[in-house]
Automatic annotation (TrEMBL):
Amino acid composition bias (Basic residues), ranges on this chain: 1-23
UniProt keyword Coiled coil present: no
Keywords attached to this entry: ATP-binding, Nucleotide-binding, Transport
Protein name (record): ABC transporter ATP-binding protein
Length: 317
């Protein structure tokens, strides 16, 4: 992709919110078994200065055979338009549960979630965000190009626009030579890159990403991180990103939300304040401020679980 960077992270007036309503939402794959089956209720006028996500007083309890599991308790979090937030914490602290509540794949036991000022359900129906979760969730009968182009196809993009955009996206994730392959002909990491390309297809104003780079080798992972920052700068998208990697969280985020388990709560929110100009993206990994961020997040994690060399389930790489 090009080398011209436009740095305007918080650009809430841009992108999907102002577009025409989506068509055929029932065909769009979601990350779980849930599919959109209804058309939107009353259309909501776009409010462009509104926060991307607000989570207010959210608790989530699961009823299981062996009793109740308090997955989340007292979660309050606001993600501004254009802001990059990472959720980090030991396995089982409720990161995926929180993502699923934001994506309306599950409902809170108490509290409220809004996305661009709408209910989570309405935002899902309006497809206000792109999703890339741990499992790629590709359609096995569609080629790589047809999977990436699916959101564009569903929303009426012309064949020519679609081909151009799919080419651009595949180039970005390094899969241009695999456009005509099927998902089962790709490695897990490659499938995940297809899913990420699909999530980015329509330059959404919000991306929900749950360990999207976990299956990638380190070099691809770093490239994808840099690309993600560039895309966010270009589109002004807000991102809620789950990761096990402290450096990944620090590198990508405006704020790192450190969570603690049993029940899952927000332990601390660590602001990063790093220079996120994409032209500076590679240099950032070598800078003192980056390492200071890593230390700050590691210390916040250890406050929650006093383990000498790293909280369980969290990587220092
Ligand atoms: N559908 C479910 N039914 C019962 N318990 C669940 C369910 N989903 C998650 N949990 C429990 O909620 C807690 C948080 O899980 P999860 O959000 O997946 O954690 P994380 O993503 O941080 O590893 C865990 O104790 C997990 O076992
Ligand atoms: Mg998880």
């Amino acid at each position: 992709m090009g080398t011209h960077f436009r740095f305007h992270r918080a650009r809430p007036g841009s992108g999907r919110l102002g577009r025409h309503p989506r068509r055929h939402p029932q065909e769009l794959p979601t990350c779980g078994d849930q599919r959109v089956t209804q058309l939107p209720e009353t259309p909501v006028a776009p409010t462009r200065t509104v926060d991307a996500v607000t989570v207010t007083g959210v608790d989530k309890t699961f009823d299981t055979r062996s009793g109740q599991v308090d997955a989340l308790t007292g979660i309050d979090l606001t993600v501004s338009a254009g802001e990059f937030i990472s959720l980090i914490g030991p396995s089982g602290c409720g990161k995926s549960t929180l993502m699923r509540l934001i994506a309306d794949l599950d409902q809170p036991t108490a509290g409220t979630v809004t996305v661009f000022g709408k209910s989570a359900k309405q935002a899902r129906l309006d497809q206000d965000y792109g999703i890339a979760f741990q499992q790629a969730g590709l359609l096995p009968w569609r080629t790589v190009a047809a999977n990436v182009g699916l959101p564009l196809e569903l929303h009426g993009a012309s064949g020519r626009d679609r081909t151009a955009r799919v080419g651009e996206l595949l180039d970005m994730v390094g899969l241009s030579d695999f456009a005509d392959r099927y998902p089962d002909q790709l490695s897990g990491g490659m499938q995940q890159r297809v899913a990420i390309a699909r999530a980015l297809a329509e330059k959404p104003d919000l991306l929900l990403m749950d360990e999207p780079f976990g299956a990638l080798d380190e070099m691809t992972r770093e490239r994808m991180q840099t690309e993600l920052l560039r895309i966010c700068a270009e589109t002004g998208a807000a991102v809620v990103f789950v990761t096990h990697s402290i450096p990944e969280a620090v590198y990508l985020s405006d704020r790192v939300v450190v969570m603690s388990p049993r029940p899952g709560r927000i332990q601390e929110i660590v602001p990063m304040g790093l220079n996120r100009d994409p032209a500076h993206a590679e240099a950032l990994r070598e800078e003192r401020a980056f390492f200071d961020g890593v230390t700050a997040v590691r210390e916040a994690l250890h406050t929650g679980s006093p383990v000498p060399t790293g909280a369980r389930g969290v990587e220092n790489r």
